[in-house]
Known about the structure:
Shape: flat
Order of helices and strands: HHHHHHHH
Largest sheet: none
Amino acid sequence: VEGLVSGFQDALNVAAKSWKTNHPEFGKGRPLEDNPNPLAKENLGTDGAWGNFLEFMGNVTGAPGRSLMAEHQFATALNYRAQLHVEALKEAVSEGLSGKAMTDRVNYIKEHPETFPSLHDAAREYGIKQGFLNELGPVGQTLQKLSNSNIFTKMVQPFVKIPMNIFKWGY
């Protein structure tokens, strides 16, 4: 519970950053991460009122996808922080610490996770898995490629990764 409570603000920050940058912190990036708005003025070579209108429409049509990404990043970051707390606690116990020394060690590990790569990686993997953002197997990757192959298949099956991971988790 401590990890969830203490990680809530961090999860909000990760979600906000993902929304602003259109780039996820957890999991692989989105296809348009380097070009979040294909209707941006600089991409179309337009200017003035028409360019502003097209750029605005690109932002509007991209908002649902950005919202979903931010929500998934929030959940993944929350699970990451909770698991990081668990990993830090296990590390402190394995070092034979107790009381204030254990609390200080746990807090240090949580504040500097990059200095503990195995703990950081385990917590990151847990967060990604709990957010159903883990990489797909061969069948899932094939379905994802098919879904992304053209606009018509994308309209029929817009989401592949998370539903496939939920299906794998359930069976």
